UniProtKB/TrEMBL annotation:
The protein's name in its UniProt record: NADPH:quinone oxidoreductase
SMART domains registered for this protein in UniProt: PKS_ER
PANTHER family xrefs: ALCOHOL DEHYDROGENASE RELATED, RETICULON-4-INTERACTING PROTEIN 1, MITOCHONDRIAL
Top-rank taxon: Bacteria
Organism: Sinorhizobium glycinis
InterPro entries: ADH-like_N (IPR013154), ER (IPR020843), GroES-like_sf (IPR011032), NAD(P)-bd_dom_sf (IPR036291), Quin_OxRdtase/zeta-crystal_CS (IPR002364), YIM1/Zinc_Alcohol_DH_Fams (IPR050700)
Pfam families hit by this protein: ADH_N (PF08240), ADH_zinc_N_2 (PF13602)
Domain Enoyl reductase (ER): 13-330
Family according to the record: Belongs to the zinc-containing alcohol dehydrogenase family. Quinone oxidoreductase subfamily.
Keyword terms: Oxidoreductase, Transit peptide
Single Gene Ontology MF annotation: zinc ion binding
Amino acid sequence: MKAFILDKYKKNGALRFGDMPEPALGDDDVLVEIHAAGLNPLDSKIRDGAFKPLLPYRPPFILGHDMAGIVARVGSKVHRFKVGDEVYARPRDGRVGTFAELIAINEADLALKPKSLTMEQAASIPLVGLTAWQALVERADLQKGQKVLIHAGSGGVGTFAIQLAKHLGATVATTTSTANVELVKSLGADVVIDYKKQNFENLLSGYDVVLNSLDGDTLQKSLSVLKPGGKLISISGPPDPDFAREQGLNWLLQQVLRLLSFSIRRKAKGGGISYSFLYMRASGEQLSQVTSLIEAGIIRPIMDRVFPFEATNEALAYLDTGRSKGKVVVKIR
């Protein structure tokens, strides 16, 4: 099968378009013919080597964390899916590889694709949808009437998280550039901070939750907008000791991550705020709940561009500019 392969970790390095063997199908696996794959900053970070000590990948391997497609075969213990089903997923860590014509995915990671979406639209959803769900529903337990600041509102996670937070009944503030003010307002943002003209930390206070996807400087400033008892959740780091334990990292790496996150954890604790790093996990069950919200018209996918499969490297380069509104997708079939 054709695939885009990472031969070695290299900052902004190109993936190799070549042939890989078809994936082996386990008893609990579903073989999916991929029609479209979503791109994420996580792909770039893994390609650049940023997660090399933390994730179990050894080159050469196929990159890609989002997909939509059609079931081609099922393992002997699979009961929820059949050949011909339209599905989508974020495959679990250690088994990614959606920049390819085929993938074998554990049944538990898979959900039926929303009928109202095209393959390209569906492929844009899993990673950002699960990230927003796990941050706002699971980790923050966001309640009606609470206030949440979602950074980078026009990005993949941001566009989804704004809509989810509004559905949960929260007042939503977001940061974005001048060009994207109207987009985030259309998604339901109540307070829009144009970061090119305004400093969010001077304008916001008394917030219950902050979802950060930006740099360490933004993370530090976010503490000041939270009230005591507030929650600072970051998907861009630094990883904390809880993440290290969940990933089963060795003692030395656990200590390294403890040190990396020590400053922000100490400052947060001093203000009566909880800091946590969120590295989303695959979940077909949660993705099915996301499907229900999409089918009900509560959440819509926001896509920037669709590239042909052959242009996957160009699509990654475009994503790396940081200027995309919503998601970037490659069409495979």
